[in-house]
Design a protein that fits this description.
- Helices cover 52% and strands 22% of the residues.
- It has 280 residues and is α/β, with parallel strands linked by helices.
- Strands 1-2-4-5-6-7-8-9 form an eight-stranded mixed barrel, surrounded by five helices.
- It is globular.
- The chain binds ligand C2E and calcium ion (3 copies).
Length: 280
C-alpha cells in the first residue's frame, strides 16, 4: 500500500509540476505579447432593430492573441492574465486601442458609434482607475458619451468598498456601464439599484434555446422586462437565428448582438459590415 501511495504521489507532483511550468511559460509568452504586437482587437456590431429597420449603434471590442499564426481564445488566456495581474496592463492597451480605432471610424462616416470594452475586476479595483480612463479618452480624443464599460456580476459581488465610488466617477464622466452575462453568475437584483448601471446584456445561454425552451424563454422575457422597467437598455447577445430574432422583437428587446448580424472580425474586415449596417 505504501509503494502504491508513493507512486501516486510521484505521479501527482509530476503533473502539478508540469502544470506550474505550463502556467509560467504561458505567463512569459503573454508578457511578451504586448511587446511583440501579438494582441489584436476584433469587433462585433451591436444593432438596434426596430420596426423592420436595423442600424448599428456600436461595437464590442474582443481581445485576440495570435501566437505563431494560431489564434488563442480569450477564454484560455484571460484567466491567466487575471491571476497574474497582467490584465491591468493588457486591459489598458485594449481600452486605448479600441478608443483609437472607433474614433477613426467616428471621423470617417460613422459618428457616434459606441465602443464597448470588457473590464476585469482587477482593473476596476486598481486605485485611480477612473482617472486612467479619463486620461485615455483625453489622449485618443474619444468622447466619454460613446464609451461603454462591460462588467460582470462577480465584480460587484466582491463588494470592494471603492467599487461604487469608482463606478459613480465613471458615470459622472459620461461613460455608460453595462452588466454583462446577466443572470449567469451570482445575480442579485440588489445590484441593479445599488450601482449606476445603464445596460443589461442578456447572456447567450438563455437565448440559445429560446424560444423553443419555454422556461428559458420565460427567463429571457423576465430579464428584458426588468431592464425596460428600470429604463436600462437591454442587449440580447448570441443571436444566431431568425426565430431568435422574432422572439426578441416580440418581447420588445431592440438591441441585438450575435452571429446573425456578424461574427467578431478584425478592424479592417468589420468596417464594410459597419458601413452596410449603418445605412439599412
Ligand atoms: P463576452 O464578453 O460575453 O463576449 C461575448 C462572446 O460571445 C465573445 O466570445 C463572442 O465572440 C461570442 N459571441 C458573439 N455572438 C455570438 C453568437 O451568436 N453565438 C455564439 N455562440 N457566440 C457568440 P469571445 O470573443 O471568445 O470572448 C470570450 C470572453 O472573453 C468574453 O465574453 C469576455 O468575457 C472575455 N474577453 C474578451 N475580450 C476581453 C477583454 O478585452 N478584456 C476582458 N477582461 N475580457 C475579455
Ligand atoms: Ca462582454
Ligand atoms: Ca457576455
Ligand atoms: Ca462571457
Amino acid at each position: 500500500a505504501k509503494a502504491y501511495g508513493k507512486s501516486q504521489l510521484a505521479l501527482y507532483s509530476e503533473t502539478l509540476q508540469e502544470e506550474v511550468n505550463h502556467r509560467l511559460t504561458l505567463e512569459n509568452a503573454l508578457s511578451e505579447a504586448l511587446l511583440r504586437n501579438q494582441f489584436e482587437l476584433y469587433y462585433q456590431p451591436i444593432v438596434k432593430v426596430e420596426g423592420g429597420t436595423s442600424r448599428v449603434i456600436g461595437v464590442e471590442a474582443l481581445l485576440r492573441w495570435w501566437q505563431d499564426g494560431t489564434m488563442i481564445s480569450p477564454d484560455e488566456f484571460i484567466p491567466v492574465l487575471e491571476e497574474s495581474g497582467q490584465i491591468v496592463e493588457v486591459g489598458e492597451w485594449v481600452l486605448r486601442e479600441a478608443c483609437r480605432q472607433v474614433k477613426s471610424w467616428h471621423d470617417n462616416g460613422l459618428p457616434g458609434l459606441r465602443c464597448s470594452v470588457n473590464l476585469s475586476s482587477r482593473q476596476l479595483h486598481e486605485g485611480g482607475f477612473a482617472a486612467r480612463v479619463a486620461a485615455v479618452l483625453e489622449e485618443t480624443g474619444f468622447p466619454a458619451s460613446s464609451l461603454v464599460l462591460e462588467i460582470t456580476e462577480s465584480l460587484l459581488m466582491q463588494d470592494v468598498p471603492d467599487t461604487l465610488a469608482t463606478l459613480r466617477e465613471l458615470e459622472s464622466l459620461g461613460i455608460r456601464i453595462a452588466l454583462d452575462d446577466f443572470g449567469t453568475g451570482f445575480s442579485s437584483l440588489g445590484y441593479l439599484h445599488r450601482y449606476p448601471l445603464h445596460i443589461i446584456k442578456v447572456d447567450k445561454s438563455f437565448i440559445t434555446r429560446a424560444p423553443d425552451d419555454e422556461r428559458l424563454g420565460a427567463i429571457s422575457r423576465a430579464i428584458i422586462g426588468l431592464g425596460r422597467g428600470l429604463r436600462m437598455d437591454v442587449i440580447a447577445e448570441g443571436i444566431e437565428t431568425p426565430e431568435q430574432m422574432r422572439f426578441l422583437r416580440d418581447e420588445g428587446c431592440h438591441y441585438i448582438q450575435g452571429y446573425w448580424f456578424s461574427r467578431p472580425l478584425s478592424a479592417d474586415n468589420i468596417h464594410p459590415v459597419l458601413v452596410s449596417l449603418s445605412t439599412l
